Batch of 4 targets.
Target 1
Amino acid sequence: MKFSECIGSIKNKVRVWRFRKGGWESTDSAPKEMETNDLKPMSSERVKSFLNKIKENNKSPNEWSNYE
Amino acid sequence: MNEENRTKIPQKDSNSRKGWTRRSALKALGLTALTAGIVEPVSHLNSTEDGASLKDALGEMFQDHYKRMDKEEIQEVLLRLERTYAKTYQKEIKVSNDLPLQGVVFGYALNLSKCKGYRDCVKACVEENNQNRDSEIEYIRVLEMDKGSQNMETSDHYYDAEEVPQEGKYYMPVQCQQCEDPPCVNACPVKATWKEPDGIVVVDYNWCIGCRYCAASCPYWARKFNWNEPSIPKDEINPQTHYLSNRPRSKGVMEKCTFCLQRTRKGQMPACQEACPTGARIFGNLLDKDSEIRYVIENKTVFRLKEDLNTNPKFWYYTD
């Protein structure tokens, strides 16, 4: 299976609740600006910056640490 | 009342506090209630049924948070749990406390081209992690989706075809994504869940109050709640457990995938990875430049679920 086969051209839509006159309503077809694509590939820069981030986080574990 | 009887009644004396004052009576009443409150719920444990001793029951009641206990206290807790489980399951069960290793952050990658929807990973996970058989708690959900679409809301979680893979479908297993910025951790009001230095989000089952805020905040359906007292057949229980992972849980607490840290912190692979017959799962140390997982995320076209939520999962999907 190719990457494009599972991405396709269909974008995953975020279901949002928005306030309209008369109450809250669910939007089955979200407005264009709310469209998102779960399967957007990560760029190599983003992978690199994420790896740097976890490297830093690993050096300084969060509070309450008793691992020393 | 005659004179003799009257002298026996304690008289209020402003210089001393002997005798029954209102304060001392209330104090005594309070102490009695406290003692009854502690002893009564645990007194039945001293004698029968689950067989835990009174000391063990009190130890459980007053146990501190995992991260605030020192090594000796944790060791005591582990021994107590082993005693309790041995009596419950009639089997020797080891509860370990392997700590995260320095320079290790675990990550996972899954090849969608290879996943055929067999659900062997799900079965292995249930057995390895001592999950409740009655409530059908499963850490891994395999979604059946139409090729060309990626709508998780319309995907089929409960596909029941006689044969997989079905024509025109592909399969995407979803489990805890071990987010680098986990929303579930922020949601917990009692800090019963946290991210370990090796990147695994864990739960202290003895500290969890069962509010389920974490389940509400998780965008990946990764949190599972024990609505009932978990039931695990005695002959199926996995005796190799970890305090923060697959030890038997109790009713009313939350649980989740921990990338099998009872195995991975010993250098083994997670059960789902070992069980996968197609080799779709890649697991490893993200900080190791030579690891397979690093190769995949640096050289393949990878994506993460719900990237726009900024949870930064350490779980990637890719295709050949």
Target 2
Amino acid sequence: MTIRTLLVCDDPDTRALVALSLDLHPAFAVTAGSRADAADTLRRRVEPFDVILLDTKHVDLGPAALVAAIRQWPSSATVPILILSSKATEVRSVDAQGLICKPFDPVALPHRVIEMLAPFGGERR
Amino acid sequence: MRAVGNPRIVQLLQAVRQALRHVTRADLDRRPVLANCRMLRDYLMVHLADEPNEHVRILYLNAYDRLIGDELHASGTPSGTPFCVRTIAARALEVGAMNVVVAHNHPSGLRESSRADIAQTIALEAALDALGITLIDHLIVTRSGLASVRAAAQALPA
């Protein structure tokens, strides 16, 4: 059972920490990259994803526009998006399937993502 | 190379968690707690948000909103933890607190206050008020942020 995860984060330190945290759990197969990397991956439909983790810090777009930018690609139009943010009030109205508030416990993060995906079918493969 | 099962990676992430707890506590110790909501939120998030069972923590503050102490008051099941108004009030007097912040986590992730949360908050606020101590708030900590029980209580129809 694998949760194919696309991690979109422009901050390399946060990206490394989140990727490492998820990679520690055998259920996750993580593809991590900046927003530009992710756009390229989704545009080329290289691989399907079960969840997109989207860090909304360090970007020039607001959270809503960022989600819309990801939703424009057929490969990610219906994939659950979980937002990583320290600004809970700013992202509650965004069309995403969940919010992971920063700061978060990196040890508990994989279990948290699995729990949040349960209503959407959980692990896909 | 995958990190799965790598004990050094586990240790590293545990160290990161511990560092977060130390740093957020140091921030609270350095400044008035209520001067920066983000500071208090971060502290409560890293200490409570991922606990599998409910825990009630009490932050006792002096007249200048500096932290006197943060104490684990009670631990319970994944779905509930009662707190003792009498014990909290007595402890607040003992440490010389002028302000109190109560926080407990909802492992379920629900941000809504239960009827028990609201009833206990009203009782605690009244008890502390009689002693000249202010209940600043009772906060519910979830993985997606904080919610105020006090605000929920005030929103109830009279």
Target 3
Amino acid sequence: MTHLLFGNLTLADLPHKWFTVGATGSIIAGGIAIAALLTYLKRWKWLWSEWLTSTDPKKIGIMYIVMAALMFFRGGLDALMIWLQQALGSGALPGFLGAAHGYLDASHFQQIFTAHGDIMVFFGTMGFLFGLMNLVVPLQIGARDLAFPFLNSLGFWLFAAGAVLINMFFVIGGDFAASGWLSLPPLSGPEYSPGAGMDYWGWSLQISGLGSLLSGINFLVTILKMRAPGMTLMKMPLFTWTSLCSSVLVVSVFPVLTVAIALLWLDRFFGMRFFTSGFGGNPMMYVNLIWIWGHPEVYILVLPSFGVFSEVVATFSHKRLFGYVSQVFAALGVSSIACLVWVHHFFTMGAGADVNAVFGISTMLIAIPSAVQVFNWIATMHRGRIVFATPMYWFLGFVSLFMFGGMAGVLLATPAADYQLHNTLFLIAHFHTMVVGVGLFGIFAGITYWFPKVFGFTLSEKWGKRAFWLWLTGFFTAFTPLYILGSMGAARRVDSYAAATGFQPLYATALAGGLLIAAAFLTQIVQVVVSILERKQNLAGGDPWDARTLEWATPSPVPFYSFASTPEVRSRDAWWEMKKDGTANAPKKYEDIELCKNTGMAIYLSGCVFLLGFALVWHILWLGVLGLAGAIVCVIVRSFDEHTEYVVTAAEVEKLEKERLGRSPS
Amino acid sequence: MRPMADNGIMKVWYRILLGAVIITGGVILFKELVGHSTVSLFEPAGPTAGSQSRLIKTMAGLMLLVVIPTFIALFTTAWKYRAGSPEAKYDPEHTGGFGKEMILWAIPAALIAVLALMNWKSAQELDPYLPTRSLSGARPLTVEVVALPWKWLFIYPKQGFATVNYLQFPERTPIHFKLSADGPMSSFWIPQLGSQIYAMAAMMTQLNLEASAAGEYAGKATEINGEGYARMTFTAKAVTADDFTAWVARVKAGSNKLDMAAYNALAAPSEGVPPAFYASVERGLFDTILMKFMVPASTGMANSSPMQRDMEMPAGMDMRSMPGMRK
């Protein structure tokens, strides 16, 4: 009877360890604080009707970024805990807090690095990217919305449901997966990881993966079908191009992830034998599937950053992008080769020399378009008039890291060298150089660059530059030791090591770097706060950077209808050309605008999916049936709703525009 | 946006210089800090690791030929064309053109062509399945390796004994490892000798290594395989041929036996296992461990099912016999 009601849940699954109690406490305290604040400010209705139920990509983009920043903070705490454990984990030191080495026992340490990896990739970086794409892509192509506004809202809420589920283990269960961020079987199979932590891992990734897939489809269709008249593919801004490439990759490979994790679940739940050792199963099939998704995923994370830098360099050099066609083909090249390299993640699993070399060389090929992009950015600066605003700092930092990381990547792509570098901290350093140096630096540059477009005022340059320098020095201090440790034969993911290895000083240096990065993150929070306080001094007009692409043709902050009249595009750098030939402020012909109504259905649907996920983690049949049925009912109800849009008439638009022009001189 | 004044740019350069000083200082500090320990990648003790070390250095050097000029171009261009620079020419419409862009593609393509050749050649030469060339002319020694949670079992099939977490072998002699696992997958690595390879249940992989001089080398697991992962280390000791013969005789003179019962006890999860020595080992133990996963209901290996005895099954699945994995 208890099992019928509660599945595998028992009282022992309630928080009782210091970290679960602490995390649960802070989750509850945070929740109460937010609820109290909202009640005090009487903002519940505002939050619900203006934000949570919105289908406006500008608002969904902001929600993505807020969510991603929270997850980034969460994953960052994990990173600090990992650094601290490894700095203390020398065999020469006694352990404390009940651990044999350092302050975390092995299983807890392994759960932390697993959570760190998954949260940073799936909920941190992916969230930032979809956020930026939501904010920028529609404006860059002159569209008022995405092709499927409801799907966009649903994509976000599924992402949010996944984020909540992955953190639920603190509150109920207390254990997360301890098998590394991709959870390779047989370790992740029922034999070695029977607990619910593994299922929290699987189902949170399934739910957020579904959200990513829906968003990928949405952006793919939006970019192909919703462009303003005159904007041919070869007139699209580079950020839109790289977002398109990213979306194509999402649509191509996320289903593979879904299938791989689903098969693993069948192994775990029904005792099937897809990935078990022997008995007809083979864990290598999982390894292939997960990397068929996993490698392109890395490019999903970094491609939009390349686009950001193409925009940033051209804008701040006040010059046309050098080699537009090359940049487009480089992005296309990177994304197509990205799908042909996955075996380089397991050269060391016994494949033959020919197989390894083919995948090694295909991996190396990616260096060609990557280098071309760097050359083109340098050539763009040539004969420019470069203003060194914060985004340019991120650009210079990014190129510096990108070239080191790229070199390390080419070494790892060489099977004979990889046999010595695989699974070492050298690999970890390489991966972080790419995802932080390229992915995150690009995101930071992008957020700084487009912030005034979204909020109407620029971010503090002073604090932005401070954050940049802290990030850069922190990064080098944290990850140079990891390259060296890798060369010393230090394996990844160890919670302890013999004192005789001499690793400890380097691990301690890495921890110092980690603290610098933490300071950098705090500086970025200060930057946002200071900028909000000083917003009156930093008001941005529509075009604070003297930029080039169509999004800057709109006022800042962008009105809910984005473009008062549909823009017509005649060339690349459409806004720059309009400014040049004087058509930028031409009188507008107003027209009726159709927009999608707000809807809470995506929240209800994602809530049901969350219940389904939770039920699957704990094997609670009735809750699972309820969640699934609820989700299906939501889909049916939504599909019969024929009044999903509303019209802003031309007269209303004109009135709103006149009011706006009357208010601000820009 | 107001263009940044010149002293702002000076500040940038000052900071870049400062950064360079910090990095150089850091590198020197690291050298002091890690001076007494081994940078195994660049202190190879065997021909395989030696070739890999040279390969990594050569490739890194070749890449620096492009990377260093790119760095210089990046920062000089950024400096020269800063807003407010007196001598810089401003041409907002300047773009590539087919010829110039092709040159930009040709530079990395040429470099990658060279690196790809090295990639191919080294993949063939350093294929872990290929025997190393014996430095002393001695015949290869075969060692069967089983990754257990969380210790390494080494079986010397010809000599008929076994060790745990301790591997000894003659110097300047090719060692042929056959690897499998009885538990989650692990990766077997002796950094100073070269190449790591995965050890996976129900599958057999191979690795060939050789030590060019006597010495003790650290060995470890590098793939996450559970709680004892970090402590799944072993010592690999290369000795002279005579010392090896004497050591074998000493081990075989012991009384410890690795029969099925002892093996099943050993295979249970445990960590921090000290080196252990078995004077004799159950015949065909390595193949039995491979077979364990091939037939259902045979998990208690001691009483294998009739089905297992009757069926003629290949001894485990050699990785290279899988489709797509053939050389």
Target 4
Amino acid sequence: MRRGYVGIGTVVLTAIWLTGCNSSNFSPPTELIAATSGSSQSAQVNMPFSVPLVATVTMGGQPVSGAFVVFTAPSSGASGTFSNGTNTETDTTGSNGVVTSSTFTANGTIGAVALTASVAGVTATTMFSLTNTSGPPASITATSGSLQSATIGTAFGAPLVATVVDANQYPVNGVTVTFAAPANGPSGVFANTTTTDTETTNANGVATSTTLTANGTTGSYSVGATVAGVATAASFSLSNVAGALVSITATIGTPQSVTVNRPFANVLVATVVNGNQQPVSGVQVTFTAPATGASGTFANGTTLDTETTNASGVATSTTFTANGGVGTYTVTATVPSGAEPANFSLTNTAINFAFYVSGLEAINGGSNFYGLAGSVQVDGNGDVLGGEQDYNDGIGVLSPQPSGDAILPETGALTVDSSTGLGTLVLTTNNTSVGVNGVETLAVQFVNANHALIVQFDGSATSSGSMDAQTLSSTLNDGNYAFTLSGVDTAYLPIVFGGVFSVSSSGTALSGTYDVDDAGATVTPTLGTSFSGTISAPDAFGRGTITGAIGISLNYYEVGPEAIRIIDVDSTDAGIGSVFGQGTGTFSNGSLGATVFGVQSNSLGSLFAAAGMFTVPTSGTLSGVADVDEFDNDVIVTDAAISGTYTVASNGYGSLTIAQGDLGDVSVLGIYSTDPNLNLNDPNNTTSGLGGALIADLDGFTLNGTGVLIPQTDTSTASFAGSYAFGAQTFHSPRGAKLGWEFDFVGQGAVSSGALNNASGLLSDPFFIFNATGPDGTDTAKFTGTTTPDPTNAGRYTMKLGITVAADPVNFNTVIYQAGGGQLFWLNADKTDVSVFLGVLEQQGSLVTVPALAKTESAQER
Amino acid sequence: MVAGAHFLLQTSAGLVDASLGRFAFDGRDALTLVAGQQVEATGVVRRIEGAQVFVVRTVEVQGKVYVIRNEHGVAMSPQARGRASNKMDADGGAL
């Protein structure tokens, strides 16, 4: 119906024609239709489009009301229906010329939908462009890439392809698909080197993974492909197969050796390549060490370690630590393909300790001087593998020379408490004159894995000394050295030596200068005597001889390049001491600064001990405080202000004089400077307690001894805390039925707030100075005391040390001098005591690699 | 008090504290004393801790001379006495 339009239009057209047109250009206006809104929409199939289709009809720029507009959608393919259920409907424009369709609903076909709107009777049309889209993902399927195989460590030939469709099986575009391979076992990695990969579907609903590379484990497995909203993943069945062309080689870490119980310097590194010698990444390499015997463990504490090769085909093991067994063995590195294993040749070497003690012998007609030095080799389980030693008591009972005593293999053992470092070392020798029919027992208190304080602990003697890990070499180093030696002369009277010398001719010759204080010879010490001698090469235990020097025959045992123990092996005299390197520098008075010192007679000397500390107000002078207990001279001076002078020559040879009367009879000391980078009490410790000098007391017939000067670096009480190992050699009035005046002890305990509480140790008392000492002359002991800092001398403390053997507590008034937090001297010196001791407290380090960490505290109790 | 053995020596000057050291009664040529026995001792008197002490070097008992300390005052251990005795025998001389 166009009635309304005709009536009105006639009037208008007439007016226009009369006023604005001529007969030649007049053309009646036509109706136009344009899409106003609703185009460019999308809707999921079978779902309504969100807005209706709107068109506007105009004629001559004016809206046409009442015009009939026909909306027509495709009759097939992607299309839809209006509310009348068909693909077309007719609507009428309003007064504004606008016509609006009913809701248009997409049919079930995805794709572009071209709708037209036309005015009835007019050719003009307009177009609406709509799109029927797919629905949400309804399923995902593995389209291709499944059922592939790849050689381990190589890429699969085809990517994994998954297709996502909606409920109508229409592909879903633009959704994320996640491909996930197994995290363990047979699997593979995508281009991102992980086991997962995310990709987006294309217009076909297809997602394609990056390249998947098989890992090093053979076997079948599934890779899943998932998409959000779909419960069931697509699954790709894949298989890693062995590749005969993959090979593995040991690249780093073979051969190498390490001392038992210690980590190897290099981790084990294997490289995996394919047949083209190209590195293969992602291959699992399994390092396997022997399950028994000489072997070791990886960081996981087991003999197995599995690592994956990196992009360079390299697999690197965790740290490998030797066990206690000694020997060479093979650690293999294998790959799942079964390629020939890579072999790492590793060796666990035994640990050698040099030991030396001196004291008082209780057998062989003693009390005699007692000196013992040797080397013992143990495995990481503490089993003794062999060794050598020299023993001398100065009365003609000594180890045969030149062989010395053999320490027999497999009959002795080092047994140490893992928490305290306290234990025993039993040595079976071929010399029945030592120990108990040739079996010696030493109490050992480890300070760290390389150093222990030791005492004889079998009733045959009592003595104190040190045991230190050896670094063996085939010759002694040329260079400069300092030494002291203390013992008895041919008249069985005390004698001490001190001096400096140079080793030359590739470790075979020495020459130098020495002092000697010989109570059996001259009235005053003989100073500055030149000497020379010949050195033999050390044997496999670091043992050698020094002949022609200082008038006695010496054997030596290497501790390391700058530490050597020496023992007099003459049948008519005896002595024991140490040699330390002097480093490469020269010395002067400036070599001495703030210093702590300790000096003590030997057990057959005029018994005394002294300790103190001093500063150097001006070069060549000293001022400080010290204590001395001259047991035999009955001179006891405590908390004494001391002053004096000293000189040190460029070769480290010097002397120190304490003003007469300041420190009893202690006045003249020889100084023999040592390497400032050397710890004299712990020669393997290269980080603390460094520097100083050997000293010899040279006060004539009634007083001589040996000791050390140590730089004083830290006097704070806060530093004197932690776990300490300690020991001391004690001279005491004889109390037992057998004449003997010495007991020795080692132990360990914590110092906290200045208190040493219930420290425990082992005490050697073959002369039964303690009432309750066990019948074999040895026992356990408890140590308790509280330090009191000297208010006027920082670094000096006093302490009443209680030593309890069974129920037999005895107090010892003690003074402590602190060189640093790691190293202190303690001296028993008191007018009410009938004893004197000198010893050390050394802060404990790690005990992890100490051999034979097997004995428990309870097992050690007697 | 000097460590080791002591005995009280009655002299014309009164009682004297005599120090014999650690070794006098032990080992070879050990000293034997009986209370009331007449002895002859040589040595030096030292003042130690405020008291007079006779530091004995030799003791002669019934004609036998026991060397307690050597000529330098060093206490003679049994081994030292033995060495000294052996040396004296070898030298054919007296101490």
